[in-house]
Amino acid sequence: MATKIRLQRHGRKGYAFYSIVIADVRAPRDGKFTEKIGTYNPNTNPATVDLKFDRALYWVEVGAQPTDTVRNILSREGVYLMKHLKGGVKKGAFDETAAQAKFDAWKADRQKGLAAIESKLAADKRAAEKARLEAEKKADAKVQERVAEKKAAEAAAKAEAEAAAASENEVTEETNAETTEA
Questions:
Q1: Residues 58 and 51 sit within 8 Å (Cβ to Cβ)
Q2: At residue 140, what are phi and psi to the nearest 5 degrees?
């Protein structure tokens, strides 16, 4: 029986996530499978992979053929590196502890790289938020300035109207006083 390591699609339209499964070559994409060894979610940044490392390594060593995408996922997770290191142990190039030390060093370096990427994304997000807030403050200041100008213009117009009304009252009082004297 020829086996493949492939992705099985789940999720809704436009938001797919995948199970990483071991299946017979003849089985349909979302059909019967032998074993589920993990999940892959490309919708997050960076993509999230939850993998049963030991089972994936077992199936790769047994000869299950991964699809191109799954090969990239397994390579990023270190399955192929561990297979390579185990081959070196079998040939006597180094012992099991040295192989595990090399793998642990690679994994620590990878985690440091992922942490750097995440911190850069967080810093970019904070900078974008700060820039958006500054732009909003500038726009708010312009609106406040326009409102103040409008209120000042209204106050000036009201003062002029009151002054005009007061002067008219004085003129009418003077004319009334003149007419009563005469």
A1: no
A2: -65, -40
Residue 106 buriedness (CB in 10 A; 0-12 / 13-18 / 19+): middle
Identify the CA nearest to 37 among candidates 83, 81, 77. 77
Torsion of the alpha carbons at 77, 79, 81 and 85, rounded to the nearest 10: 140
**What SS3 state is found at 39?**
strand
Residue for token digits 């790289």?
Answer: 113
Structure token digits, residue 37: 């060894």
Q: What is the DSSP letter of 3?
A: E
Decide: helix, strand or coil at residue 76.
helix
Structure tokens at 97: 């502890």
Output the DSSP codes for 79-142.
HHHHHHHHHHHHHTSS-HHHHHHHHHHHHHHHHHHHHHHHHHHHHHHHHHHHHHHHHHHHHHHH
Give me the amino acid identity at 63.
Answer: G
CA angle 84, 4, 54 (to 5 degrees): 45
Write out pLDDT tens, residues 123-169: 999 999 999 999 999 999 999 999 999 998 998 888 888 888 887 77
Other residues' Cβ atoms within 10 Å of the Cβ of residue 99 = 19
Give the CA diameter of the chain: 134
